[in-house]
């Protein structure tokens, strides 16, 4: 029931070879304490020694950071050289003979250690780092036996602890000023929030202008805490609980970066999440969400018992799993008998594992007998699926994250990586600091436009809703100025389609000059940006929901692909088209056949051969016609012909646009089954509640934005007694289509059996490799780093003409402003998880950003209440006056349900996929002094729902 | 009518506008029909076709042609 315990991947302490690996094909041989070793050129002596199994004492060096040479402990003797060089800053040379342990070195190291310890509290037994202290270990290693200076001299022992961060404590009395924290903040995170203040004995670590961490520029990524060799920077959970006794490698359940973490445990208790140095997506880095915000998993709001009720105004009744499943199946069958087999459907979640998603779509196509399955990717990246499949032949990003380190020019369109994909943003900033150029296209001045030591070369600050006009102007420049890669286009792309496109894009109406009236971006800027990108050796495009969530989302994705093809930016490191996926498993949920028109592996239902393959394996007949998408389901519900919905881990009532329409649709259904961790907004409309399990409670896999399949491993049993894939299988079985798997690995085996791009994937392979990037099959048994290397997945790349079609959602005298939406770093999506952690302190409410000039004419002041009214609805938020937004544009986040951001968004959507146009809503703004009518109703409903919870529920 | 025809019409016209990069209505119509056939639930296609048979003048010329090619 609780997963296969043999699959636990338990590991001890993380290795640390002292300095980063060298990237060289040349090798160098040397001897260390008489042992011969061959290492890549550019390796430090410290690392070479560690690789040879010789641990040289060190304090300021750590594998994640470049060598610094300050602690004077890693001294060595080199034959034929005088003095005692530091092993961390000395590089290996051919034939070097190194001694790491000599009487002279031992004496020097003891002397250094003596100085450190003369100014350090000697309360090791009660210190939180006890058992995990490099200072203590090093004192032991060098054989420190006395401190001749005594402890009475000047010292820092009275320095005060800064406990302002909710997650870690800063106790400067324990600090040895090795500057690992400062360098972690600079090199790994790229925020430059920490510094060494003062000189010599007065040196101390300071956050920003010597402020408490919480008030400083610190973004709480935790890199400094991980880097600290003492108890100076320590997780509060470790202070409270003590050292973990084991670690399980697993994958973060927040954004599409998919960071690998060590879940460090004491029994079933999660002590801390530490980013895994061997993680292929994150290389030992993390953000505040993955590193610290896991407390939701044990929050008292978790519902752990199934519940049912006859109608949504009734109190919930806690029941057994058997009763809940039988009840749900009976209601769905009653609906099918009355309204027909197509009157029910399901929605899978991008938060859930591949295996959990796969069984949902399988249940719909077998037990339900229709294709009414969709996934929450509908409302984020469905245009990516459509656009990249059409142009390139595969619905996925083309690169690895590491590829950015080879990019010369980076374009970021409609994405805010420092907030939404922070670990990748840190890597991108590292590349920018090395000199890569940056072009940002965004209506708002995102942090990347100007951040410490990086600055965008161009910020194309376009009007919301004019992406396609801008991308066409960029492509027009490439063609009209002869900047295209003609060899690439000739050899790799469909000639006829290219000719049609070339003719289309060359038309004067697509020129930067013609488009500047629409986009608001000066033509000269567009031309210069196009020249920069086209002239780059390697040009890479990264994009997010600011591209997809528009009425022309799919067109824009194809426009991006056209531009990248025209400039030959495919098939190698440093280039490509890279969608930044919002949720951890958006890629995976799409891969697994969650869309109503296709089977796993993006194969259309109309493909008879594919259909037959599944029909034989599943022993059912599959309908060759597509089913309903999410918005179609809502419309059909309101029309009385779609009556039952199984929702796996998605909060439609909060996250989908035009809230009032969504609520009407959910309210019209006869059976809404919600499977979630919490009684979310959608559960207010539910008849059956099935308690879900957090990522800590189950085995499975997630697939990140790089197509990287990474293992999720169970570290504690599911609180509800059932993992989510088991719930779906039980429902399917009760509906008359038995599904029995002993473990999620068997589900993956089925996926591999039926899906060519996953043919080589298995849990055993994942165990060996750590992660695998699909396609992974006979042709690429170790997975695929770069897509479309010799030819595109579809054969020849297809240029598609992308006419700019203005959105219906335009401003006028009644709704003169354009509202756009986004996220902050500390909260995640609708906030269901992060609001139930101390991350709440960083962002207590959603605010509406408004330009000071727009505010002034309306009498709106900073912090005052603002009514925001669109054609769909009205809500009230507090104002934040800022020049980040241009005049005429408003911006807000949607992390708190009572903000009602989606009360104002409309049901306009992408023409090809119905992905909602979240990013453009015409609104009016005005000062008010009370919440909107919707918000008053929301408060009242929330209170009512609480009263309907059965009192017997735990927590 | 079981579905909201105004919405379907709007969606179909939106598809048509995004395919209309050429003046050749036959090309546009076949692209629109292919899109609807691949991505629309047959109930939606049927509703659009039924509507078109009574109100063809209200649809753009390319969409009118496309509706004739729906596979329901």
Q: How many domains of chain B, as an integer?
A: 1
Number of strands of chain A: 37
- Give the CATH architecture of the largest domain in chain A: 3-Layer(aba) Sandwich
Quaternary structure of the protein: heterodimer
Largest sheet of chain B: none
Fraction in helix of chain B: over 70%
Q: How would you state the average pLDDT of chain A, rounded?
A: 94
CATH topology of the largest domain in chain A: Rossmann fold
Tally of alpha and pi helices of chain B = 4
Largest protein-protein interface: A-B, 32 and 21 residues
Biggest beta-sheet profile of chain A: 7 strands, mixed
- State the order of secondary-structure elements of chain B, H for helix, E for strand: HHHH
Roughly what fraction of the amino acids of chain B lie in strands?
under 5%
Mean pLDDT of chain B: 92
List keywords for this structure.
heterodimer; A: 955 residues; alpha/beta; Ubiquitin-like (UB roll); Alpha-Beta Plaits; Rossmann fold; 5 domains; seven-stranded mixed β-sheet; six-stranded mixed β-barrel; 30 helices; B: mainly alpha; 4 helices; 71% helix; 0% strand
Would you mind describing this structure in some detail?
The complex is a heterodimer of chains A (955) and B (72). Chain A is α/β, with parallel strands linked by helices and 955 residues long. Chain A folds into five domains: 27-142, Ubiquitin-like (UB roll) (Roll); 168-298, Alpha-Beta Plaits; 307-380 and 586-773, Rossmann fold, CATH 3.40.50.740; 397-422 and 430-579, Dimethylsulfoxide Reductase, domain 2 (3-Layer(aba) Sandwich); 817-946, Barwin-like endoglucanases (Beta Barrel). Chain A is built from 30 helices and 37 strands. In chain A, the strands form ten sheets. A seven-stranded mixed β-sheet of chain A has the order 14-13-28-27-26-15-16, with helices on one face. In chain A, a hairpin with an 8-residue loop joins strand 10 (246-251) and strand 11. Chain B has 72 residues and is mainly α. Chain B has one domain. Chain B is 71% helix and 0% strand. Chain B has helices at 5-19, 25-39, 42-55, 61-67. Chain A binds chain B through residues 342, 500, 504, 551-552, 554-555, 596-597, 604, 606, 625-628, 632, 635-636, 638-641, 801-803, 805, 907, 909, 911-914, and chain B through 2-4, 7, 11, 14-15, 17-18, 20-22, 35, 37-44.
């Amino acid at each position: 029931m609780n997963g296969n315990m043999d699959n636990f991947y338990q590991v001890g302490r993380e290795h640390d070879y002292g300095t980063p690996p060298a990237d060289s094909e040349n090798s160098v041989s040397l001897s260390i304490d008489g042992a011969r070793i061959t290492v890549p050129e550019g390796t430090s002596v410290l690392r070479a020694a560690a690789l040879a199994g010789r641990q040289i004492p060190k304090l300021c060096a750590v594998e994640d950071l470049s060598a610094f040479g300050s602690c004077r402990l890693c001294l060595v003797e080199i034959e034929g050289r005088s003095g005692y060089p530091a092993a961390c800053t000395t590089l290996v040379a051919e034939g070097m003979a190194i001694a790491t342990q000599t009487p002279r070195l031992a004496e020097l190291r003891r002397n250094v250690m003596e100085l450190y310890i003369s100014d350090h509290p000697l309360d090791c037994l009660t210190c939180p780092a006890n058992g995990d202290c490099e200072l203590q270990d090093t004192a032991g290693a060098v054989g420190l036996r006395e401190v001749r200076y005594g402890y009475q001299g000047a010292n820092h022992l009275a320095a005060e602890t800064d406990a302002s961060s909710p997650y870690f404590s800063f106790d400067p009395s324990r600090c040895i000023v090795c500057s690992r924290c400062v360098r972690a903040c600079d090199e790994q995170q790229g925020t430059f929030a920490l510094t060494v203040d003062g000189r010599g004995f007065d040196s101390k670590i300071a956050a920003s202008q010597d402020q408490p961490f919480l008030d400083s520029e610190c973004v709480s990524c935790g890199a400094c805490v991980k880097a600290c060799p003492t108890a100076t920077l320590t997780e509060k959970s470790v202070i409270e609980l003590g050292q973990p006794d084991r670690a399980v490698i697993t994958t973060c359940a927040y954004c599409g970066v998919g960071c690998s973490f060590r879940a460090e445990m004491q029994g079933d208790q999660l002590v801390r999440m530490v980013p895994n140095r061997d993680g292929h997506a994150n290389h030992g880095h993390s953000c505040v969400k993955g590193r610290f915000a896991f407390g939701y998993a044990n929050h008292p709001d978790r519902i752990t018992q199934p519940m049912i009720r006859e109608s949504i105004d009734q109190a919930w009744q806690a029941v057994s799993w058997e009763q809940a499943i039988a009840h749900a199946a009976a209601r769905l069958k009653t609906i099918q008998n009355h309204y027909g087999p197509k009157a029910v459907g399901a929605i899978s979640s991008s938060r859930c594992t591949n295996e959990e998603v796969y069984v949902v779509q399988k249940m719909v196509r077998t037990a339900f007998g229709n294709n009414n399955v969709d996934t929450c990717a509908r409302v984020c990246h469905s245009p990516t699926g459509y656009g990249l499949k059409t142009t390139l032949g595969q619905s996925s990003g083309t690169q690895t994250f590491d590829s950015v380190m080879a990019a010369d020019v980076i374009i970021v369109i409609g994405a805010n990586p420092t907030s939404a994909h922070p670990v990748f943003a840190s890597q991108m900033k590292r590349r920018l600091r090395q000199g890569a150029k940056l072009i940002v296209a965004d209506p708002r001045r995102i942090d990347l436009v100007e951040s410490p030591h990086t600055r965008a070369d161009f910020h194309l600050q376009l009007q919301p809703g004019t992406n396609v006009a801008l991308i066409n102007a960029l492509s027009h420049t490439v063609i009209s100025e002869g900047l295209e890669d003609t060899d690439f286009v000739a050899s790799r792309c469909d000639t006829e389609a290219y000719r049609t496109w070339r003719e289309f894009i060359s038309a004067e109406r697509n020129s930067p000059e013609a488009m500047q009236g629409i986009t608001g971006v000066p033509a000269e800027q567009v031309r210069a940006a196009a020249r920069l990108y086209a002239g780059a050796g390697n040009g890479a495009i990264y994009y997010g929901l600011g591209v997809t969530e528009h009425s022309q989302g799919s067109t824009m994705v194809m426009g991006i692909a056209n531009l990248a093809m025209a400039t030959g930016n495919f098939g190698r490191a440093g280039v490509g088209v890279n969608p930044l996926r919002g949720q951890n498993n958006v890629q995976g949920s799409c891969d697994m056949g969650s869309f109503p028109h296709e089977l796993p592996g993006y194969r259309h239902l109309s493909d008879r051969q594919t259909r037959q393959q599944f029909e034989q394996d599943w022993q059912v007949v599959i309908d060759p016609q597509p089913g309903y998408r999410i918005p179609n389901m809502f419309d059909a519900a309101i029309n009385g012909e779609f009556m039952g919905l199984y929702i796996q881990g998605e909060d439609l009532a909060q996250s989908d646009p035009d809230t009032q329409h969504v609520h009407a649709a959910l309210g019209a259904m006869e059976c809404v089954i919600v499977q979630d961790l919490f009684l979310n907004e959608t559960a207010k409309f539910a008849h059956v509640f099935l308690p879900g399990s957090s990522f800590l409670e189950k085995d499975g896999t997630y697939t990140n934005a790089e197509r990287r399949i990474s293992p999720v491993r169970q570290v504690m049993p599911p609180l509800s007694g059932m993992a989510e894939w088991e719930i779906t299988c039980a429902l399917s079985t009760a509906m008359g289509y038995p599904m029995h798997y002993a473990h999620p690995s068997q589900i993956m085996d089925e996926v591999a059996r039926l899906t060519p791009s996953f043919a080589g994937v298995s849990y055993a392979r994942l165990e060996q490799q750590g992660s695998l990037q699909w396609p992974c099959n006979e042709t690429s048994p170790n997975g695929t780093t770069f897509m479309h290397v010799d030819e595109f997945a579809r054969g020849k790349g297809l240029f598609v003409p992308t006419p700019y079609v203005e959105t219906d959602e335009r401003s006028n005298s009644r709704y003169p402003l354009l509202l756009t939406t986004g996220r902050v770093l500390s909260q995640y999506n609708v906030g269901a998880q992060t609001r139930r952690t101390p991350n709440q302190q960083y962002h207590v409410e959603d605010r509406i950003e408004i330009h000071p000039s727009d505010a002034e004419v309306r009498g709106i002041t900073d912090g005052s209440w603002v009514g925001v009214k669109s054609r769909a609805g009205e809500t009230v938020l507090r104002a934040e006056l800022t020049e980040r937004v241009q005049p005429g544009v408003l911006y807000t986040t949607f992390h708190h349900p009572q903000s009602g951001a989606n009360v104002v968004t409309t049901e306009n959507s992408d023409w090809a996929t119905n992905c909602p146009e979240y990013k453009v809503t015409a609104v009016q703004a005005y000062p008010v002094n009370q919440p909107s009518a919707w918000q008053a109703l929301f408060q009242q409903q929330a209170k009512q729902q609480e009263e309907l919870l059965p009192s017997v529920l735990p927590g | 009518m079981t579905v909201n025809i105004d919405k379907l019409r709007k969606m179909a016209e939106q598809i048509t506008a995004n395919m209309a990069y050429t003046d050749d209505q036959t090309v546009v119509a076949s692209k629109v029909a292919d899109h609807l056939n691949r991505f629309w639930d047959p109930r939606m296609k049927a509703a659009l076709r039924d509507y078109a048979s009574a109100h063809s003048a209200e649809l753009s010329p390319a969409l009118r042609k496309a509706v004739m090619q729906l596979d329901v």
